[in-house]
Amino acid sequence: MNQHQGIVHKVCGMYRRDIDDRKDLFQEIVIQLWKAFPNFRQEAKVSTWIYQIALNVAISDWRKENRRPEKTGISESIFNLTEIPADDAQEEKLQLLYHAIAQLSDVEKGMLVLYFEEKNNEEIAEILGITQNYVRVKMTRIREKLKSLMVPSEK
Questions:
Q1: Are 13 and 98 spatial neighbours (Cβ–Cβ below 8 Å)?
Q2: From CA 43, how far away is CA 134, in angstroms rounded?
Q3: What tens digit of pLDDT does each residue of 6-37 get?
Q4: Is the pTM of this model over 0.70?
Q5: How far is the CA of 124 from the CAs of 30, 47, 141, in angstroms?
């Protein structure tokens, strides 16, 4: 686990923004890895197996969370937040990217995690149990979707 915990952290970061939620998800993934380890047949790389378990747990957790009633947060106006200064353009772009990624489907997020991990199409296909051709098509569509989602809306 020490050698591959980065995989689990990346999956948790993709599916959960809140630090406490990420910690809970990390713990749940580790528990599921522990439970599944006796059945690991070593037919695939350990990292592939970890990705499969981590993504399945993250997606299940995300779906469970979306069935719960929506949490209401404290209004930003209480904190008198100001607009993002022009010199923080990089931070604004990063937040725009996070927002765009949050709008992707479960499968799209999973593919993006693997893409950011520099997995090739063959590895992504093996981990997700889909064809390499589907990976190529889906990745092209994900890039197009992110581009369109990151265009700032004009008010």
A1: no
A2: 23
A3: 888 888 888 888 889 889 999 999 999 999 88
A4: no
A5: 21, 11, 15
